[in-house]
Amino acid sequence: MFHKATKDLVKQVAPDGDLLPVTSLIDQDHFRPLYLVRKKPKKVFWMTRHCYYKTGVQLSAILVPGQDSRNLDIQDSHSFTVEDCTDGRVKWTIKLPEDFVSTELTLDAGSYQVKSIKVKRAEVSPADLEFLQGERKINMDHSIIKDLRKRRENLYVINEAVQTLEESTLYKANTMEGNILNDICVHFSLKGTRGSKRVIIIPKDCVLAFRIKPLIIQSESWCISHHPDDETFVADGATAQSKYSPDGGTEDLQTDVEKECAELSQLSTDLRAKFLKSIIAVIINSDLLQELTLQLEEAFEDADKCELKSENPDLEDLLNNLQDSAGSIHLYLVGPVLYTLHALGELTEDQLLRLAQSVQKQIVSEQLELVKSILKQDFHLKDAFTLDAKLVSSLQEEELNITKAMIELGGVTLQRNGPSFTGTGDLAAFSALSALYVALYALHLLSRSE
Predict the structure, then answer these.
(1) Of 137, 42, 375, which Cα lies nearest the Cα of 367?
(2) Could you state, in order of their start, the residue ranges of all structural domains in the chain?
(3) Rounded to a whole number, what is the largest CA-CA distance in the chain?
(4) Which residue ranges does the record assign to the Gasdermin PUB domain (predicted)?
(5) What is the pTM of this model?
(6) Conformational region of residue 219, where left means phi above 0, alpha means psi within -120 to 50, and beta covers everything else
(7) Is the torsion defined by CA of 272, 276, 277, 279 positive or negative?
């Protein structure tokens, strides 16, 4: 709930994407101005949601002590209020493929959310940072510097934060009516109505979002870069490049997806059913998606110190099969699942809902081929491209509407033109559509019955 609120805030006040939402209320204190965050080198260009991790270390802690006792000035700028009030109801039915598991979920859900938050900006004076650069050098023997230099990870300085001006309350109420029919090994049927209320009290001065600048280190000298793709230890070697880009076309993307998801194709029919059930659960519940993503990211960071567990029964089978009875984590399985979750995390909630409907209607394979065909177009050009209508000839009208909406929510426009479709898109749409391709590919593997 907190993460969704910060994501909504970021979309409203900074749609250009350089303001980053804080994901955890517990960790918010580590994302204040002058704190350092780290990020692994970017592996895939379609991930706009960069994974920045707290270090718990401020910039001053990695600098060699100097004679200057000047404190860096963190200035508060103007304040403003962000309001969001929604009231709605949605009804959908999801039925997983009958070939290997019969599960039907029918829900009629209503929700009411109220968010009104007064916030302020807190930022570091650029002049103060420039002064500090000339006065104090980097301590190259600091443990975090030595560790990140060895692992080729990047460091960033938080130069601005959006904080609450006063204590705020987030309120969310849900009502849900429906039934769940499931037949895997045990037959059961559940029917009922459920209501829930969730309230989060956000304290005064809580950090909701932040902006960063790359920290560049060369020998003992350092500087703050204004180019977001610059690397911290670039002087140690050649700058790393993205694994692929729109210039490489769909072939590079397809090769990467096949490699990253290879282990999913080797799962037994039973395990594919269990994995698919959990993936569907996180698709229709953004809180579960965040919970599972954070857990698996922590497992990938340090498998020896992480235990995979959840109180949600929808994740139980998946987490049990990602580790053995002794608790040892199978990273070869965590990798492709996390890769899939990152792709899902790039999609909008409306896209995710339509993705769940697509699994239910068993049209994922057709959508995969359609998206693949669109990605082959030249997105550097603004001219419209043409697609063969045979790509969607097997889809019924409702299925076509679901598919078209899911693709257009990613920034590509599609319009029927006689026996074909015409479409337009830009480089941002190419990136968004690539994430959809990854999600469809993984779901296609998990939905196979053979």
Answers:
(1) 375
(2) 2-236, 247-447
(3) 76
(4) 251-419
(5) 0.66
(6) left
(7) positive
How far are the Cα atoms of 112, 140, 285 from residue 314, in angstroms, in the given order?
Answer: 24, 46, 11
Residue type at position 263:
E
Handedness of CA 385, 400, 87, 191 (dihedral sign): negative
Residue 230's identity, in one-letter code, is D
Q: Give me the average pLDDT of each 10-residue run along the chain (450 residues).
A: 77 77 87 89 58 87 74 66 54 47 44 66 86 87 90 90 85 49 36 55 90 90 85 63 50 86 93 93 87 86 80 89 89 92 89 93 94 82 77 90 92 82 80 91 88
d(CA 221, CA 63): 10
* Token digits of residue 429: 């749409």
Can you read off the two tokens belonging to residue 308? 């995979």
